[in-house]
Write a structure and sequence with these properties.
By secondary structure, this protein is of the alpha+beta class. 15% of the residues lie in helices and 24% in strands. The protein has two helices and four strands. The strands form two sheets. A two-stranded antiparallel sheet has the order 1-2. A two-stranded antiparallel ribbon has the order 3-4. The N and C termini lie far apart (26 Å).
Length: 67
């Protein structure tokens, strides 16, 4: 398990734990907690995941994923 922590706007620490298996299942091995859904599936197949574009990926409509 990998644990991520960050201070939220409320001033409290918010912690998210993800399994290493979930991060290994991501085709790009992204290690940012916001990249994962509550069920721990990655969002490489989510066209609305705008952070992917900010991180330098482009949407491949034919493949239905960020590349």
């Amino acid at each position: 398990m990998t644990e991520f922590g960050a201070l939220g706007p409320d001033g409290y620490e918010h912690v998210r734990t993800l399994s290493q298996a979930a991060m290994r299942a991501c085709p790009h091995r992204i290690m940012a907690p916001e990249h994962y859904r509550e069920d721990e599936s990655c969002r490489c197949d989510d066209e609305s995941h705008a952070e992917m574009a900010e991180w330098g990926y482009s949407w491949d409509a034919e493949a239905g994923r960020w590349d």
